[in-house]
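During the no-cost extension, the postdoctoral fellow (Dr. R.K.) reprocessed legacy sequence entries with the updated structure-token encoder. One reprocessed record is reproduced below for audit purposes.
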Amino acid sequence: MKQVIVILALVALATGALAGDPIKQTDPVDYTFDTPSRIQLTGALSEDSPIWHRWRPNDYQAVSVDCMLPMEYEYSVDPAYDFYCFEVSDTEPVEFVVDDAEFDTVVYIYCDPFDPALPTENAVIFDDDDGDGLQSAIQLSDNVTLQPGNEYWFVICSYWEGQYGTYSVMTSDNVALCGGVANEASDWSSIKGLFD
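Re-encoded structure tokens follow.
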């Protein structure tokens, strides 16, 4: 009996389609999506992640879009970190907001080249706790305006040595990755080779 019902249903569908009565009409609107679009960076820091000896500026609100942010205060810990190469599509401010993390985060933007062995060079901005709770956020109101055609680096690390876990970062819609994540290299020449 079930076979007969299925066969009758198929015949009815075919008859409707042949009679010019489509089951579903095609949407005539052409959709386009802005490129690049908002992206979400996700990853995890672990005992296998590289570590770096990080610095920060004395002025937590300082921004240097000319890549000369003075990194004057040396942290005494060597946390794990990840970093991403990115580009911008316009000169509007960028945004990198940690929307979830299992550890206390710190974030940076560096101009190219970024060398984790030279953390005081080419810095644009640093943020510790401008996000939710102990999370970091480089917000539109920070007015970090970068140049299209140039490469930049977003760095996320833990506040303390030995802090690990997953993280998620939402960017503004004018940010696009230019090569992916570099998280296993320890010197600039090997890092740069990942993106050539």
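The longest strand covers residues 81-88. The CA atoms of residues 53 and 78 lie 5 Å apart. The remaining legacy entries will be reprocessed before the final report is submitted.
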